[in-house]
Amino acid sequence: METDSPIINRIIENIRKKFKEEKEGQAVSKEKRCPFCGGKGLQEVGPNTWRKCKCRELEEVEELWNKSDMGFDSMTKTWQNFEPVTQAQKDMKNIATNYFLRFKDIRNTEQNSIMFLGQSGCGKTHLLSATAYKLIKDEKVGVVYMSFVDAM
User: Fold this and answer.
1) Long-range contacts of the stretch 4-13 (C-beta < 8 A, 24+)
2) How far apart (Å, rounded) are the C-alpha atoms in residues 12 and 16?
3) 102-123: pLDDT as tens digits
4) For the chain, which terminal residue's Cβ has fewer other Cβ atoms within 10 angstroms, N or C?
């Protein structure tokens, strides 16, 4: 997909490059033993009735988080522990939460991305981390995080 913006085109190319590197560099994970499912990923809940084990759900969230290129310290950042001081920070928080709430409607459109630009320390990474974690955990959506400098 080409756009009229050289900056956006460069960002898209960098995202494609990261996905390609991730795909080529995937290592086979060690078999993990779960006390509930024995590492099968499915848990018997009744006669001939199975469901995905919690261990598998957690592995999926961890896998998506690892692919997002965000550190694990970012998982502690939530909308609840973001304390806006300025009106701009309140607006950013509203934009982030509304983006998540509308994501199902915009998921398959070209407008399904979010980006914050602003001065250092204003809360961009905190809010984007919180939004990314909610998308990964609740919607099982892969995300890509990169700073503006990385995208260039």
Assistant:
1) 7/151, 7/152, 10/151, 10/152, 11/146, 11/151
2) 6
3) 999 999 998 888 888 888 889 9
4) N
CA-nearest of 131, 133, 137 to 54 is 137
| Residue 70 exposed, middle or buried by CB count within 10 Å (0-12, 13-18, 19+) | buried
Confidence of residue 55 (pLDDT cuts 50, 70, 90): confident
pTM for the model stands at 0.59
List alpha helices for the chain, DSSP H: 6-24, 54-67, 87-106, 124-139, 148-151
Q: Enter the tokens of residue 57.
A: 């759900």
Q: Is the dihedral of CA 63, 67, 72, 75 positive or negative?
A: negative
Tell me the residue length of the chain: 152
Give the C-alpha separation, 127 to 78, whole Å.
7
Read off φ and ψ for residue 30, nearest 5 degrees.
-70, 145
Query: Quick one: which of 100, 96, 99 has its CA closest to 88?
Result: 96
Average pLDDT over the chain, rounded to an integer = 79
Of 24, 4, 14, 23, nearest in space to 144 by CA: 14
Mean pLDDT along residues 90-100? 95
